[in-house]
Design a protein that fits this description.
By secondary structure, this protein is of the alpha/beta class. About 40% of the residues lie in helices and about 20% in strands. It has eight helices and twelve strands. Strand 9 and strand 10 (about 195) form a beta hairpin. It is globular, with a radius of gyration of 23 Å. The N and C termini lie far apart (about 60 Å).
């Protein structure tokens, strides 16, 4: 049949299925979420009227500056994301397109996802406390640490929780603050042995950090290139792999002595 059509007509006939597929794709839900810079919270301060970090069984110190954990905000697990939404996200600098499974466990209900994120946050807080007390050679049996941060789930605040505990108990080890009075932000999971892990969404988190006044951003070393891709002006990246390395980098930054790593 096509051999008897003129070339323009043949092209038109062939194009119809493609147009139909594109039209279907434009309106069909896709397995992605759209993310944007989220809230940040100073772990050395209060959140919703309560201290983020409360320590009993040891003397704590007054701190200056801020240690801000960072987040991303993603469309909900049941939100319909179309091809047009995805294209907008790809070409925007303040949005990112992420596979749904990288943000929400596949096939789970909203309630199950919330429970999963809450469990990950609790596990992260426990690991952060253990890592900080191990770093300080403190007895975890004699010191109790309570961490409260409402409306945030997942493990990505682990590094900042550990740094906050270290700052409240020991500062830079010589009477000064880890922050040096600066607003320092960052992200990263942490294991009980102090190992810092990657988290995802760092390009959006750097934007949230700079928006809220940070001048320094601690990033898992493996995610340096992602953090650099949309790095806001005035924000310095410091790559880290361990809690000890992060503390050392902040002390070097504060005192001007020693090497401060860079991406």
């Amino acid at each position: 049949m096509l051999s008897r059509l003129t070339r323009p007509r043949a092209v038109a006939v062939c194009a119809l299925p493609v147009v139909a597929l594109l039209a279907t794709a434009a309106f069909a839900p896709l397995p992605f979420v759209l993310a944007q810079p989220g809230m940040t919270a100073n772990v050395l301060g209060d959140n919703d009227g309560d201290p983020v970090i409360t320590i009993t069984g040891a003397t704590t110190r007054e701190t200056r500056g801020e240690l801000r954990m960072t987040t991303i905000e993603a469309t909900g697990p049941g939100t319909r994301v179309s091809l047009a939404d995805v294209l907008d996200g790809w070409f925007g600098t303040d949005q990112a397109v992420m596979p749904r499974d990288s943000v929400y466990p596949s096939g789970d209900s909203t309630k199950e996802i919330e429970e999963h994120n809450a469990a990950e946050m609790k596990e992260s807080q426990d690991a952060a406390t253990e890592a900080a007390l191990r770093y300080l050679d403190e007895d975890s049996g004699g010191i109790k640490v309570s961490l409260r941060l409402s409306d945030v789930g997942g493990p990505s605040a682990g590094l900042l929780f550990s740094l906050g505990i270290v700052d409240k108990l020991d500062g830079d080890g010589k009477g000064g603050d880890l922050t040096g009075g600066r607003t320092i932000a960052g992200t990263g999971t942490i294991d009980s042995d102090g190992t810092v892990g990657a988290v995802g969404g760092v390009a959006l988190k750097t934007q949230a950090a700079r928006r809220d006044g940070a001048t320094v951003f601690l990033v898992p070393k493996a995610e340096c290139s992602d953090a650099e891709s949309e790095l806001p002006k005035g924000l310095r990246l410091i790559p880290v792999t361990t809690l000890k390395g992060a503390v050392g980098a902040l002390v070097a930054l504060e005192t001007g002595r020693g090497k401060v790593p860079s991406c």
